[in-house]
C-alpha cells in the first residue's frame, strides 16, 4: 500500500492540495483498516478544510478530529487535545492534515513529543502552479523552513501539479520534472503523482495516486 505507516502527515504550502489528498488517503485507508481517523489541524485556511466534510466522513466510518461547535470554523490555532489520544492509539490508522504556512508548522511542532517514536511518515505536497511553489528555489526554501519550524523531517514529496478542471497530461508531466529537481536538491524521494480520477494519465515515472474531488472553490458552489 502506498501510504503504509500508521500515521501519515500531509504538509504543503497554501493551495498545494494537501487537504484533498488527506481526505482521499483516509478513504483509501478505510478499505484496508477497520479504524481510521483524520485529524484536521489546519489552523490557517478558511476554505478547503477537512472538517467541512464531517457528515460524509462519518457515513464512511472515518473519525474526524477537529474543533467542534462554534470553534469549528474559527481561524484560531486550536488543536483538539483528542489528537494526542489518537496518536497514541495503535488501533487507529491516522491521517493528519496540517495548515499551509509557518503557523500550521508550529501547530504540528506542538505534537512532536506525542509523535516521537511512533510509526510516522511525513509528506510534503507540491503544486508548481501555485505562487508559493512556482519555482524550484522557492519550493525548496519553503520545504526546508517548514520542516525546521514543525520539527519534522520530510520523508517524501508528492507531485500534485494541477490547474483544477483545466489540468492536462502536460501539466502533470511538468510537475514530475519539477518535483524531480526538488528531490535532487533535497535528497527527499518522491512518493507519488496525484491524478484526478477523470484524467487519463498512463505515465509510470512515479506511482500514481488517483483521487476523487471532495473540495470545491467558493465560486463552484
Verbal overview:
By secondary structure, this protein is α/β, with parallel strands linked by helices. It has one domain (7-68, 75-220): 3-Layer(aba) Sandwich (Rossmann fold), CATH 3.40.50. It has 7 helices and 8 strands. The chain has an 8-stranded parallel β-sheet, with helices on both faces. Strand 5, helix 6 (136-150) and strand 6 (156-159) form a beta-alpha-beta unit. Helix 4 runs parallel beside helix 6 and helix 6 (136-150) crosses helix 7 (169-186). The chain is globular.
What is this structure's SSE topology?
Layout lengths: L6 E6 L5 H13 L5 E6 L12 H6 L2 E4 L16 H7 L4 E6 L3 H8 L2 H4 L4 E7 L9 H15 L5 E4 L9 H18 L3 E7 L11 E4 L10
Parallel strand pairs: 1-4, 1-5, 2-3, 2-4, 5-6, 6-7, 7-8
Helix pairs in contact: 4-6, 6-7
Give short descriptive properties of this protein.
221 residues, alpha/beta, Rossmann fold, eight-stranded parallel β-sheet, 32% helix, globular
Give a summary of the structure in a few sentences.
The protein has 221 residues and is α/β, with parallel strands linked by helices.
CATH class categorisation: Alpha Beta
* Tally of individual helices: 7
Question: CATH topology, what is it called?
Answer: Rossmann fold
SSE topology string: EHEHEHEHHEHEHEE
**Poorly predicted parts:** 69-78, 217-221
Q: Approximately how much helix is present in the residues?
A: 25-40%
- Rg is 16 Å
Tell me the name of the CATH homologous superfamily.
P-loop containing nucleotide triphosphate hydrolases
The total number of structural domains is 1
Mean pLDDT: 87
> How far is it from the N-terminal to the C-terminal residue, by CA?
34 Å
Helix and strand content put the structural class at: alpha/beta
**Mass-distribution shape:** globular
Question: Number of DSSP strands?
Answer: 8
Biggest beta-sheet profile? 8 strands, parallel
Instruction: Describe the strand arrangement of the main beta sheet, using strand numbers.
Output: 3-2-4-1-5-6-7-8
Domain CobQ/CobB/MinD/ParA nucleotide binding: 15-143
Protein name: Cobalamin biosynthesis protein CobQ
InterPro entries: CobQ/CobB/MinD/ParA_Nub-bd_dom (IPR002586), P-loop_NTPase (IPR027417)
Amino acid at each position: 500500500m502506498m501510504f503504509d505507516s500508521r500515521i501519515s502527515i500531509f504538509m504543503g504550502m497554501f493551495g498545494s492540495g494537501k487537504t484533498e489528498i488527506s481526505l482521499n488517503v483516509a478513504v483509501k485507508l478505510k478499505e484496508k483498516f477497520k479504524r481510521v481517523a483524520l485529524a484536521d489541524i489546519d489552523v490557517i485556511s478558511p476554505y478547503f478544510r477537512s472538517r467541512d466534510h464531517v457528515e460524509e466522513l462519518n457515513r464512511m466510518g472515518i473519525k474526524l478530529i477537529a474543533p467542534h461547535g462554534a470553534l469549528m470554523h474559527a481561524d484560531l490555532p486550536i488543536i483538539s487535545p483528542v489528537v494526542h489520544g489518537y496518536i497514541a492509539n495503535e488501533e487507529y490508522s491516522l491521517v493528519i492534515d496540517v495548515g499551509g504556512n509557518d503557523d500550521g508548522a508550529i501547530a504540528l511542532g506542538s505534537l512532536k513529543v506525542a509523535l516521537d517514536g511512533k510509526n510516522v511518515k511525513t509528506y510534503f505536497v507540491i503544486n508548481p502552479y501555485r505562487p508559493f511553489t512556482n519555482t524550484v528555489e522557492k519550493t525548496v526554501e519553503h520545504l526546508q523552513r517548514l520542516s525546521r519550524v514543525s520539527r519534522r523531517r520530510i520523508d517524501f514529496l508528492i507531485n500534485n501539479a494541477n490547474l483544477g478542471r483545466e489540468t492536462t497530461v502536460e501539466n502533470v508531466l511538468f510537475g514530475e520534472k519539477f518535483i524531480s529537481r526538488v528531490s535532487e536538491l533535497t535528497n527527499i524521494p518522491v512518493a507519488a503523482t496525484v491524478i484526478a480520477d477523470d484524467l487519463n494519465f498512463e505515465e509510470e515515472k512515479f506511482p500514481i495516486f488517483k483521487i476523487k474531488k471532495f473540495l470545491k472553490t467558493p465560486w463552484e458552489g
